User: Fold this.
Amino acid sequence: KKTEYLILALILAAAAFLRLYRIADYMTFLGDEGRDALVVKRILVDHKFTLLGPTASVGGFFLGPFYYYLMTPFLWAFRMNPVGPAIMVALFGIATVWLVYRVGKDFFNSETGLLAAAFYAVSPLVIRFSRSSWNPNIMPFFSLLIIYLTWRIVTEKKYGRLFWVGLLFGLTFQIHYLATFLLAAVGVYLLLFVPLKE
Assistant:
């Protein structure tokens, strides 16, 4: 156990370093990031709260405002510097590394969890998207959390806790509309493995 936790700590430390080191120099700040920062600035400075989130990339509809309010304390703490929300996304990225370990461990074994977390921690593409504040960049955390919680609920037969999965889905839909496909997959899983009567 001590060796396992030591390796996990090293993986998380590497993940944190690769995501947070000189983040201000490596983060992306383009049109979408600027739009989000301006909306959150209006929330903080002008107290103009919103029930509309970012515009979806297809279809011309709006997502929910959850991501904006998630950004708010970080933009406030960094005095309107957009590096604050980028750090928020990096922290979600580090948490996702731990979640990958936990899922791998519980689904298979500790070695699988550590190996999967190590690969995810050093993946160049994952690191790149963990360094900038853009709403799809935190989807891996919420998607994997929903999958893991659903699996735990079904295996432990504690179906009352599906309320929390529903709540997470509500938040995830506000992050990105691709959560629709995840809902379909989780729905099929529940239909196959949750008995209609105990």
